[in-house]
Write a sequence for this structure.
């Protein structure tokens, strides 16, 4: 059964199904090639290498393969040397484990690689007395499986940029919504009921921004060493520019709303702050449009117009509230943070605009 969002088949995501398929195909190919090459009639180590080394991205797979191959070579070499000198006994087993673990720690092989040297050494000690050709077989089949896995990843691993694109676009929409809703609430006067609604929207924005930033980093990793990275990089850079601007805004919005909710007193309408928040929301919407269409002259012109309007609204609101709240520090502490929030929106959008347009995606 296909889920309604089109991203799942039952409880399995499509990217998970695709990765499992790549691993299965690589395991079959490595087994067949090992048999054809005469390594063994049952070359299970080649398929095991595919299972152990293949990761969701090309970069992760390459890093894991290099890490584990180094560990296998060291483990096999250590065990062969000790087996040749002293055979197999409890002391030799303990020495292989001790040296293997210490070597893995010194080389920073990570959680998975930390036992690989010792494990390879133990397998060699256990099997070599029965099958003297096992050390060479382990190295050859492991190298074959790792190589086949990398080739399959290079040929069949698409860049995972779409989740980052969708997440960044959703953050733009939610940030726009939060600021507009704040403006609507202040236009009617702040109340306890509206405070709960705005606080929930701000929490959603913060969580969405955190999730989107993680997805952008995952997408960036999926492009490393990927042959199709060039065509996908513009889309990723557009998503990254959105998040670089809006992630700090999401954090500031949550802090601002929390401070405003520390006092439950209702207020009279604040039309000037309402207008400022609406103009800041316009900037967010225009910035998202400019990131999506950086070569469109109208998108850039709209962003500049909205920035100018927001600057004017900020100056007007700041002068007005300074005059009216001069003798009311509690009102400054509660609602004054809206000024730096809107200032942050325009500053981040202007910084992105001045840094130059993101690359244009290829259709």
């Amino acid at each position: 059964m296909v889920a309604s969002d089109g991203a799942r088949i039952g409880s399995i995501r499509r990217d998970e199904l695709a990765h499992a398929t790549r691993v299965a195909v690589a395991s079959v190919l490595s087994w067949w090639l090992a048999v054809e090459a005469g390594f063994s009639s049952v070359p299970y180590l080649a398929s095991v290498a595919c299972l152990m080394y293949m990761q969701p991205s090309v970069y992760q797979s390459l890093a894991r393969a290099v890490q584990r191959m180094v560990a296998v070579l060291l483990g096999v070499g250590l065990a062969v040397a000790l087996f040749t000198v002293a055979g197999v006994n409890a002391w030799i087993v303990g020495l292989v484990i001790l040296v293997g673990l210490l070597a893995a720690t010194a080389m920073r092989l990570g959680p998975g690689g930390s036992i690989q040297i010792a494990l390879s050494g133990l397998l060699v000690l256990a099997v070599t007395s029965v099958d003297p050709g096992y050390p060479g077989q382990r190295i050859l089949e492991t190298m074959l499986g790792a190589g086949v896995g990398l080739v399959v990843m290079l040929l069949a691993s698409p860049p995972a940029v779409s989740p980052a694109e969708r997440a960044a676009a959703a953050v733009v929409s939610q940030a726009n919504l939060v600021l507009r809703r704040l403006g609507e609430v202040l236009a009617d006067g702040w109340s306890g009921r509206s405070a709960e609604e705005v606080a929930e929207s701000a929490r959603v924005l913060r969580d969405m921004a955190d999730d989107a930033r993680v997805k952008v980093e995952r997408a960036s990793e999926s492009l490393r060493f990927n042959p199709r990275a060039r065509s996908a990089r513009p889309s990723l850079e557009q998503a990254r520019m959105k998040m670089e601007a809006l992630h700090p805004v999401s954090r500031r919005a949550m802090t601002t709303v929390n401070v405003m909710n520390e006092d439950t007193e209702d207020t009279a309408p604040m039309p000037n702050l309402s207008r400022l928040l609406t103009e800041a929301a316009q900037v967010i919407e225009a910035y998202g449009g400019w990131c999506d269409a950086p070569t469109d002259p109208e998108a850039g012109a709209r962003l500049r117009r909205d920035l100018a309007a927001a600057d004017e609204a900020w100056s007007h609101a700041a002068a007005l509230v300074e005059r009216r709240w001069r003798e009311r520090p509690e009102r400054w502490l509660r609602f004054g943070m809206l000024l730096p929030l809107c200032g942050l929106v325009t500053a981040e959008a202007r910084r992105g605009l001045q840094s130059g347009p993101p690359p244009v995606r290829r259709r």
